[in-house]
Amino acid sequence: MTLRMAKFAIGQVVRHRVYPFRGIIFDVDPVFANTEEWWLAIPEHVRPRKEQPFYHLLAENAQTEYVAYVSEQNLVPDTSDEPLRHPMVPNMFVRAPDGSYRAKSVPAN
């Protein structure tokens, strides 16, 4: 299996290519790292390949905020410049004056 570099970075705001939600990336897996049951629950005609980066998002749609696990092939950059309302964003990120987000530093144990 050949690993490739992730296209998106921690702190980047992205949108789902198909479904109406957006979010901020807080972690990246180089390949699929969820359960087989989770993967098989995705309808086969839209099931992503496992051999690509998968992203953990603090996600939000019109109704709610949640954590999502999304394949790289299903993400596109979000260029709306709208602030995120997910309640965990301020715990993990700082919003810069230009609207970008950067991860808060975590103290070493």
List the helices and strands and how they pair.
Layout: E1 13-16, E2 22-29, H1 36-40, E3 54-60, E4 65-71, E5 75-77, H2 89-92, E6 93-95, E7 101-103
Antiparallel strand pairs: 1-2, 1-5, 2-3, 3-4, 6-7
Give short descriptive properties of this protein.
109 residues, mainly beta, two-stranded antiparallel ribbon, 32% strand, globular
CATH topology type? SH3 type barrels
The helix/strand series, from N terminus to C terminus, equals: EEHEEEHEE
Per DSSP, the total helix count is: 2
CATH architecture group name: Roll
Kindly state the number of beta strands.
Answer: 7
Strand line-up of the largest beta sheet: 4-3-2-1-5
GO molecular function: DNA binding
Domain Hemimethylated DNA-binding: 5-104
Keywords: DNA-binding
InterPro entries: Clp_protease_adapter_ClpF, Hemimethylated_DNA-bd_dom, Hemimethylated_DNA-bd_sf
Protein model, in words:
It is a single chain. By secondary structure, the chain is mostly beta strands. The protein has one domain: Roll (SH3 type barrels), CATH 2.30.30. It is built from 2 helices and 7 strands. The strands form 2 sheets. Strands 4-3-2-1-5 form a 5-stranded antiparallel β-sheet, with no helix packed on it. The model has no long low-confidence stretch (mean pLDDT 92).
How would you sum up this structure in a few lines?
The protein is mainly beta.
